[in-house]
Amino acid sequence: MARPLVELTKKDAPFVWTKKHTAAVKALKHTLYADTRRRDVTYTPGDLVWVSSRNLPGLNQCSNFEPRFRGPFPINERIGQVAHRVALPPTYTCHSVFHVSQFVPDRPRDPQKTTKEAAVGWLPVTDPDGRPTHYYEVDYILPQRGTGPAAQYLIKWRGVQEDQATWEPASHLTHCPARLRAWRRHHRKAQRAPRVVPAAAAPDALSPEKTASPTPRGGKVERQPPYSRSTCNSTPPV
């Protein structure tokens, strides 16, 4: 015969009270810890905010290139205690109500305290009086593409990185004919160089898949540096 429910409840009351008290203390500690990471921010209609791009449609195929916040967008209305409706562009096919934790207030910078960008550009060649001209210095010539009159040359300009090199036709290099002739001789010599097949690959030399490129040192291909790094004048890049 089972014990009465009153006796069971009376006996287990201290244990139940202890569990209830422990749970209440844990909940209070969790609340205090969570509040330390929250911001007591209030917005009114008309305020400009930046919205986290986590819940906005992507602008790039790779999420790593997405900006963290987009905006600023004006707030239309307040919904509840911690949500607001934002005026998003019509191209954003997503919900326009966000939690306040997804906002960053717009704080325009003081123009007087904003760092001015330095003048960035390719330094042209100056005349004997120190005045800039319409010509730029060619550092060296990188690979070319095309042949004949339609050939273009990848020019590394003095003062800029190689990733900013531009393709220029021969008509833009009229002020450095010696450099251009030297590069053409170097290019023709590289094209006419015989193909050297390593000894290990000699039996399969007739196979197009196993034909080796010029290998002057035991089958290892070395990258050839640009022809010259002396400077000459050229017309500005287009």
UniProtKB/TrEMBL annotation:
Pfam family of the protein (one): Chromo
SUPFAM superfamilies: Chromo domain-like
TM segment ranges: none
Domain Chromo: 136-195
Residue numbers spanned by region Disordered: 186-238
Polar residues bias: start-end ranges: 227-238
Stated name of the protein: Pol protein, related
